[in-house]
Amino acid sequence: MLPSADFESSKRHAARPSLPMAAIANGADRGDCVDQWFRPIPLSPLHSTRCHMIRTRFAPSPTGYLHIGGVRTALFNWILARQTGGQFILRIDDTDAGRNVEAALQPILEGFRWLGMDWDEGPEVGGPHGPYFQSQRSEMYADAISRLLESGHAYRDFAKPDELQTLREAARESGQAFVYDRRWMANDEADVEKYQAEGREGVVRLKMPRDGQCVINDLIRGEVVVEWASEQDHVIARADGSPLYHLASVVDDHAFGITHVVRAAEHLPNTPRQVFIAQSLGYELPTYAHLPYVAEPGGTAKLSKRKLDKYLKNRDFANLMTRGKAIAERCALTTDDDTFNPVLVDFYREIGFLPDALLNYLMLLGWSLDGEQEKFTREEMIKLFTLDRVNKAPASFDPAKLTAFQADAFNALPQDVKVGMVKPFAVAAGWVESGNDESEQKLADVIAGAGDRLKMAGDIIDFDYCFVDDYEINPKAYQKRIVKPGNAIELLGKLREHLSGADEFSADAVEKSVKGFCEDQSIGLGEIIHALRVATTGAAGGFGMFETLAVIGKERVLQRIEKTIANAS
RNA sequence: GGUCCCUUCGUCUAGUGGUCUAGGACACUGCCCUUUCACGGCGGCAACACGGGUUCGAACCCCGUAGGGAUCACCA
């Protein structure tokens, strides 16, 4: 990357617009609706993100949950700000009043905190451009709306929704793009009074150009050209004067000094109208970058929180969900059915994922450094990410790969950090008593023994038999190792005798003892060890047998063998 | 249906005209290691959507076709 050259070229572009000649020409002979306001301002060329102070934003609406796709968008925004010493702003899009914003906002902020994505301005931290809730910025929007009205870029319209709907359907049936003929547009105060006398309510619409084209220079997509005529006269204010999303968004982006609007590609079709609003208001345009959306597992459609049933048909997705449910159930997690879903970040936090692993995986959805390196520390993410290496095509969410990333990251953790993460789960399951040294030591032993069999903190549930006696017995393993070999019970009985005489019950001591037993009996270790495992853990597999026995403890081991023998006969 | 976007292994991707008999990762899979289950090591399977150009030469450039997707609200 050549920062200085990039900087030069972006300055050159700013001084001498080269791209949108068509738009300028068309603007000149447009004649009717608007005067010379419309002159697209060229955007910075690629790479320019490295050399300017960047202000980005993520604008969630308070829905109560954080979508994985949204997190990726936020991540890119956050990185862009961090790598340039710029600011990352959180703005709350709550123009659609009526819900409990505060309650629905908390889970989102918590999600950000958990992920370690801090915001420089926004809820709770404030900032110089506040307030950061759209519901509290009405005056600014009202001002913008009246300016738009005055300059003729917007008009009052008295169409009824169903009247417009009829028109739209007719256009659609004839295969034409719907173009509103503005038949209920108020040209003057007299019109307004007349319509109001008819009992009509007036909204404010954008008076979109009917010819020429809008050129969007997108950092990821390149040049996107849209005919103005294909744009609607979008409503920007309701009858009660309250603003709609596009208006509010553009006004705020400008007021906040947002330099880069980085958002999901589904916003691309919205961009022309936002460009229109911004330019009508005389704003300098931000640089746009439209990210490919995150697609569903094994598919190409946009990942949606609402299609759980469909995703559950995907093996890997179903596995993750099953794992999550098992952890939630065993650890008595109070999960909300509505948010306990692998499409939402809450899920991962609840079952003991590492935020860095999630972020690392998400960053690779649509972005790559060189096709070789895939693992990045947070510092590397900030250092190495560039928008010009973001792909254009949607990337499908792969739960198996995410889990693999999580497993690797989790196993790279130092033992004490692992223990710290796992402990809450073990405590919640009722297996470990917090503050009790013996109990905590046992947990540490189990975690050390389990090693990389623990992929996430919640995986501790697989080792319930280390802590309690009411574990499940795997029927297949029982059949194979206890029932089928005719001598298993007999051997187990003898082994129990042998073990009962042991003074020490450390892993090493037990190993010696069991191996000595095998020698005495002239059998291979393999002939007893499987039966021993099933008898003492009920499981077909697990970590080292002798570590397992040591952790369970002499008394319990003997009891369990005894019980197995009793049940078998 | 209109508008816009996209198209390399099952998935994420590398690739910017010759180094591509297309590289890496996840998944799947074979072997080795091993008392089990994992880890690990060494292998394997597997892709340039299609058709035309341009060129000595195309995954890469151009044009079409097909397919997929997003979006078309007084939601955000």
Description:
It is a single chain. The chain is mainly alpha-helical. The chain has 23 helices and 11 strands. It has a 3-stranded antiparallel beta sheet. It has a two-stranded parallel sheet with strand order 1-2. A two-stranded antiparallel ribbon has the order 5-6. The termini are far apart. The structure holds one RNA strand of 76 nucleotides.
Short description, anyone?
With 569 residues, this protein is mainly alpha-helical. It is 46% helix and 8% strand.
Q: How many E-type strands?
A: 11
Give the amount of beta strand, in percent: 5-15%
Class inferred from helices and paired strands = mainly alpha
Helix content: 40-55%
Q: What sort of overall outline do the alpha carbons produce when their principal axes are compared?
A: elongated
Mean pLDDT: 89
Spatial strand sequence of the major β-sheet: 3-4-7
- Radius of gyration from the alpha-carbon trace, in angstroms: 32 Å
- Multimerization status: single chain
Major sheet description: 3 strands, antiparallel
Q: What's the end-to-end separation, in Å? A: 75 Å
Please, how many helices? 23
Low-confidence stretches are 1-50
